[in-house]
């Protein structure tokens, strides 16, 4: 389910491993997200966020996350 909390997490969570370690999930290159989709997203919340980011990127909607950077209020 897509909710504001997930979008805020996407805009503020950093990639914990790999070539793009430390980069915000919303700033990951589209080619990397597509590669990861082919290889298989990790399990758990990180995998769900990466899958969501891939869909947002494919549909050209990254700009919607920009106002959510540094958002700390994740209450519904």
What is the secondary structure topology, with strand pairs?
Blueprint: H1 4-12, H2 30-39, H3 44-58
Question: Mind explaining what this structure looks like?
Answer:
The protein is mainly alpha-helical and 76 residues long. It has one domain (4-68). Helices cover 45% and strands 0% of the residues. The chain contains three helices and no strands. The protein has helices spanning 4-12, 30-39, 44-58. α2 (30-39) crosses α3 (44-58). It is globular, with a radius of gyration of 12 Å.
Keywords:
76 residues; 45% helix; mainly alpha; globular
What's the quick description here?
By secondary structure, the chain is mostly helical. It contains three helices and no strands.
């Amino acid at each position: 389910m897509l909710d504001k909390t997930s979008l805020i997490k996407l805009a503020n969570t950093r990639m914990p491993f790999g070539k793009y370690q430390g980069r915000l999930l919303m700033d990951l290159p589209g080619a990397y997200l597509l590669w990861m989709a082919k290889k298989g997203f990790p399990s758990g919340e990180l995998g769900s966020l990466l899958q969501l980011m891939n869909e947002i990127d494919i549909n050209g909607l990254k700009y919607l996350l920009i106002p959510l950077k540094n958002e700390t209020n994740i209450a519904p």
